[in-house]
Amino acid sequence: MADHGDFTRSEALAESLRDRTARSAAWAAIAESATIAGLIDHAVTALRFVEEADFHQRPHLELVRTVLATGDFTWAAEIAETASDPAHRMTALLVVAEAARDGDLLDLAGEIAGSGRVDPPWAWACLLEVAANLGDRTRAAALLDRVRSAVDPEVEMIPSRLRTLTGAVEATAHLRENHFPASYSGLGPLDVSPYSGPPSEMDLALRLGQEHWHYAVEDLVELRPDAYSAIIAELDRLAEPNEPPSLHPG
Q1: What is the pLDDT of residue 86?
Q2: Can you give the residue ranges of every domain in the chain?
């Protein structure tokens, strides 16, 4: 519904969900759709209703990047700081810091990294990479010391001093590849299976005959966009209270 700009219906449905996880997923989808549609304030509001952090970061980062694209770095930083999860907030601040080339935002992310609420090696490595990309040798050298003190001393490819910024980036890449689990990103798994396009009408007809229609509705609307209004009209009809038959027809 949200993908079709029908936010009133989608929000009403999200509010009606009793399961916290399902409700969070629904509000996250609404926030993403609003961001894609350019309804930034609407997306900000929807994100406030995402209760579970696992569903918050992806639409939150999408919103931050969309605002960054407008050139409003201050607003993007404000949105970045709304993430309740410390690791997610730090990641969003780093996205803004790099785009805005803002060392103060990098320092703000560093406060989170040193707070004990995020994994230190991962956090310092993330900051080091951004500092190197900004060309900030002073901060990069200090962050390299932080990384070296936070990792296992047996970890290789951590230079004892900062010689080149490229070497610092290579060190963080090595850490990410060999020592940090994928879950550190906070983004969760992505569906990277190749997209083969919508199903044929024959395949869709078979699915509709074999499965409950709601399992195939996404493919149906992609194949025949005009079906959306018909589906919504039918759902509205089914939701209307049935009037008792009149005892005095005519």
Answers
A1: 94
A2: 52-185, 201-239
